[in-house]
Amino acid sequence: MSSGTSAYRQLLRAINIAFRGDFPTLNAARSQARQKFVELREVTPENLKEALAHAQAVTKILRENVVQGKNVREDTYKLNIHEHTERGDNATAKKMESRVVSFKDLKAQRF
């Protein structure tokens, strides 16, 4: 199996884990992943390595750091914490705290 196909399948698995039960978000994430990988068909071999590394980083974030929450009543949410969810002292989040000013800045960064 090619590294591109492998990265795509791993990303789809992470999307299924992160957004299980949230069908609109699940479908949107799958669609975006497919669109991005279709765009990779036109990428040069030098840029392909970087693009696949980016896909693997997104996969890791989705699998370990994205947790869906569902509002069960006013001010109460049930979180979908699963076996892949990273647990710890939030050291990585604290490191980013001083670097990231806003969500816009975070969104603009490449992982």
Structure report:
It is a single chain. With 111 residues, the protein is mostly helical. The chain has one domain (3-86). Helix content is 60%, strand content 8%. The protein is built from five helices and two strands; from the N terminus they run H-H-H-E-E-H-H. It has a two-stranded antiparallel ribbon. Strand 1 and strand 2 (76-79) form a beta hairpin. Helix 1 packs parallel to helix 3. The longest helix has 21 residues, at 45-65. The protein is globular, with a radius of gyration of 16 Å. The protein starts with a helix and ends with a helix. The model has no long low-confidence stretch (mean pLDDT 83). It comes from Peltaster fructicola. Belongs to the complex I LYR family. MZM1 subfamily. This is Mitochondrial zinc maintenance protein 1, mitochondrial. Keywords: Chaperone, Mitochondrion, Transit peptide.
